[in-house]
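Suppose a colleague, Dr. K., hands you the sequence of a protein chain of 402 amino acids and asks what its three-dimensional shape might be. Before reaching for any lab equipment, you can write down a predicted structure in token form. Begin with the sequence itself:
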Amino acid sequence: MSRSAADRRHGILIIVENLPVPFDRRVWQEATALREAGYNVSVICPKGKGFDASYEVLEGVHIYRHPLPLEASGVFGYLAEYSAALFWEFVLSIKVLRRQGFSAIHACNPPDLIFLIGAVHKFLFRKKFVFDQHDVNPELCAVKFGKSSGPLYQAMVLFERLTFKLADATIATNETFRKIAIGRGKMPPEKVYIVKSYPNHDGFRPVAADPALRGKFRYLLGYVGIMGQQDGVDTLIRAMGHIVHAMGRKDVGCIIVGDGTEIENLKALSAELNVGENVHFTGFLTGHKLLTHLSSLDIGVIPDPPNEFNDKLSMNKVFEYMMLGKPFVQFDLAQARFEAGGAGVVAKQPTPESLAEAMVDLLEDEPLRRRLGAKGAAKAAKEFRWENEKTSLLKLYGELLA
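The predicted structure, expressed as tokens, is then:
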């Protein structure tokens, strides 16, 4: 495929390993914002359920998807997954270089290994390298494997350090991540840009609820997001078990939207706890179908457990529930509480039973639900402006590729 000299100068290659595009809303918003600004944008990502095309062009963005041999669990599983992903990412990066061309690689973690591909292109082809830090991998490693020391943890620290060292610029999702980039990443402050994960108001707003999703249930709660070991969706299912059996509430239904490495374990847990009639797994959803499901909920749930990893994260769920005017229940997470601004209810203890009680209390208090939903929607309308974040993203590339 031929390409112009301008396309060569202004091409950007985004690499993301843990979610398919366009399901990864943040990555898709970045890709389309850059495309609208005149950049030639390509994305490399894994295949996922409903996103199996090896190559397609959506809204002018070239998407290359690769297979993964397994959904990882355990140290050796992650090594196999990441090794396969790196192989395909490198192969596809060469294909993109030949077909569309690019001036910069935009690497989205986890894992902090994409710098290896960035290093090849930086030193052999003089491409720029941008690190878009979605997660803090040393803390994630500590949570997943229960160790904040030892060879594996030290490897995560090293990979993060090398990623920052290679980066010509970095993107942080909040001020906490910015401090990490400047502090332990040794990045010059002027090279760290904050781009928050706010949805775009133009395409993310309430729609009419679908009565069929509620079915026989008086109340409907839900979760949207990734389902990994650290995301706490098992706690939500155990909470549903407590609601249905210990509290005797057969009138509460739960919709779980998304996918991830724990999905089969979660389905098995749902069957084991005999809540299969009350819990429905939808898989990946996008566009109007996603908005319909979320708009049909009475409340959202953020079951991510308190720990040193989740405490630092800006969670898409917070922004999405608030923009749709949905109150939600969460555990005591510093960053999530700050961003919620009082639009959610905090469970008293980090247990399934406490989460269940907080969810039922909120479901039965309709005036409180209305107040919290309105408070969240008002804060989102005022502060959650993707247009501002897009400006920061475009400023980064305007300065980097000047």
